């Protein structure tokens, strides 16, 4: 997968349509509407945002959208975190998943003590019933080379 992704980015070339388009798309049906729904209101809002924030190209509009999206999600997460700490005295940032957080919250609020199995058949029953788990794909370290990283950018190397 890493090789195919590297090949894809290598073959993209220099100038991308997103940075060369210097105005909002003129026909919202072409750009925003795979379901053929009427998006006139959404398109007018997008044009207003483009003008209000002085976007010079589609890349700047895209970056603005991402910034707003990320900051909104950060606000939601912060509020969720405060609520969990207030009501459960548990920090969701210390959990891998919502089910593991809710399990600990249930144990804490109910005061239930889970006993160890004393019968091997009970243990075997649970082991045979296990499903799911956590699945992830990760890369331990990646060094970016991008003009936006400042002095660490090396123009003689490919942009990543």
TrEMBL record:
Organism whose genome encodes this protein: Rhizophagus clarus
Residues annotated as domain DNA-directed DNA polymerase family B mitochondria/virus: 26-139
Listed InterPro entries: DNA-dir_DNA_pol_B_mt/vir
Family: Belongs to the DNA polymerase type-B family.
Residues in the signal sequence: none
Reaction it catalyzes: DNA(n) + a 2'-deoxyribonucleoside 5'-triphosphate = DNA(n+1) + diphosphate
Spans traversing the lipid bilayer: none
A GO BP entry: DNA replication
Molecular-function GO term, any one: DNA-directed DNA polymerase activity
Protein name (record): DNA-directed DNA polymerase
E.C. numbers: 2.7.7.7
Pfam families, sorted: DNA_pol_B_2
